[in-house]
Amino acid sequence: MQMRLLFIPVFALLVAGCSGGKQKQQASEEVASADGLTGTIQLSGAFALYPMAVKWAEEFQKLHPYVKIDISGGGAGKGMTDALAGVVDIGMVSREVYPEELEKGAFPIAVVKDAVVPTVSVQNPDLADIRKIGLTRQKAAALWNKEFSTWGELLGTASKTPIHVFTRSDACGAAETFAAWLGKRQENLKATAVFGDPGVASAVQKDRVGIGYNNIGYVYDQHTKKPFEGLAVIPLDVNEDGTISPEEDFYGTSDELIAAINDGRFPSPPARDLYMVTKGKPQGAALIAFLQYVLSDGQQYAGETGYISLSEAKLQEQIGRLQ
Fold first, then answer.
1. pLDDT tens-digit profile of 228-264?
2. Strand pairing of 67-74 and 39-45?
3. Cα separation, 78 vs 65, whole angstroms
4. CA-based angle 124:130:131, to the nearest 5?
5. DSSP per residue over 64-110, as a string?
6. For residue 177, what is the DSSP state?
7. For 41-96, what is each residue's pLDDT tens digit?
8. Cα distances (Å, whole numbers) of residue 149 to 27, 116, 152, 195
9. Is the alpha carbon torsion for 37, 40, 45, 47 positive or negative?
10. How many Cα atoms occupy the beta-carbon half-sphere of 240 within 13 Å?
11. CB atoms < 10 A from the CB of 312, how many?
12. What does the pLDDT look like over 97-155, one tens digit per residue?
């Protein structure tokens, strides 16, 4: 009898404990979904915006764990195509939206800024001259038109080192933005075509005489703020005086470059706004809440992720378009 008497209270406590745990879990779930934010948000598109979108998704899901966010790359062209086809909720686009895309229902929302910079290998034998002389817009236009075959021809030196030029094979914002700086379109850039931002960065790292261009998120390490191992940035000779002045030399860290973009020392293009594009005005509580988060609290993560926050005036303008 004593064993039975002892067993019953213990069993009762176990039942009560399990019941209490389930009740607490149910209560937690009710609180978590009390704002109605449930479901899935799908994004695809620009490699340029991918790291920033991942960070925003991670932070948003901490606040709203019942909203699932799926993100895939593929380039700005894919992002726009997917959004207009209704395959995804948001297309990530790293270029200006074309009039014909607006006519098809594209609804672009500027969310952050970054830039495209020309890159070379740190093993380039002419790196010292490259950093001293830099790259003018005129020379860059000629370079991506196959008018130079050696680094000496490009830099105006005696170097006979051959030059290998890379561009993007996928329809993307980086190529379109870089081409816009040159007064061209992506299809006018003549060079060896490589897929994706990671692909171009890898090609340049492996080719000591190569030159390409990358979004800054694929050039600078988020933690050290310095260029990734094997990569060097070619400074732009904006005033075209044949040398890189101290005012033009701001590529040592991503923080220096971001400051130059903000105060206008780095030209736009190739600095540019990045967009999240929906088909028509965004609908659905979770989707709107995510976009509002991106344009408000989410901006605090731009700098640490290697991007540039929009001005307060522009943020309020974009938020107003969601209402």
1. 999 999 999 999 999 999 999 999 999 999 999 988 9
2. parallel
3. 28
4. 110
5. -TTEEEEEEEE-HHHHHHHHHHTSSSEEEE-SPPPHHHHHTTEEEEE
6. H
7. 999 999 999 999 999 999 999 999 999 999 999 999 999 999 999 999 999 999 99
8. 69, 23, 9, 23
9. positive
10. 6
11. 9
12. 999 999 999 999 999 999 999 999 999 999 999 999 999 999 999 999 999 999 999 99
| Matching residue, tokens 């974009």 | 318
Which position has the token pair 């998120």? 217
Residue type, 2: Q
* Amino acid in position 177: T
Rounded CA gap, 245 and 123, in Å? 23
Q: Provide the residue type at 6 as one letter.
A: L
Taking phi over 0 as left and psi of -120 to 50 as alpha, with beta for the rest, 170 belongs to beta
CA distance 323 to 305: 28
For 138-141, which contacts have Cβ atoms below 8 Å and span 24 or more sequence positions? 138/240, 140/181, 140/182, 141/182, 141/183, 141/184
**Planar angle of CA 133, 137, 142, nearest 5 degrees:** 95
Q: How far apart are the C-alpha atoms of 289 and 109, rounded to whole Å? A: 14
Looking only at the bridges linking them, the beta strands covering 90-93 and 39-45 are: parallel
> Can you read off the two tokens belonging to residue 103?
């006519």
Q: What are phi and psi of 90, to 5 degrees?
A: -135, 130
Cα separation, 135 vs 156, whole angstroms:
11
Nearest to 265 by CA among 243, 236, 240: 236
Cis peptide bond N-terminal to 270, omega within 30: yes
Which residue is listed with tokens 């991670």?
58
pTM assigned to the model: 0.77
Burial class of residue 120 in the structure, from the number of CB atoms within 10 Å of its CB (0-12 exposed, 13-18 middle, 19+ buried): buried
3 state DSSP class of 277: strand
Amino acid at position 130, single letter: I
Beta partners for residue 308, in sequence order: 113
Q: Which two tokens stand for residue 142?
A: 């000629």
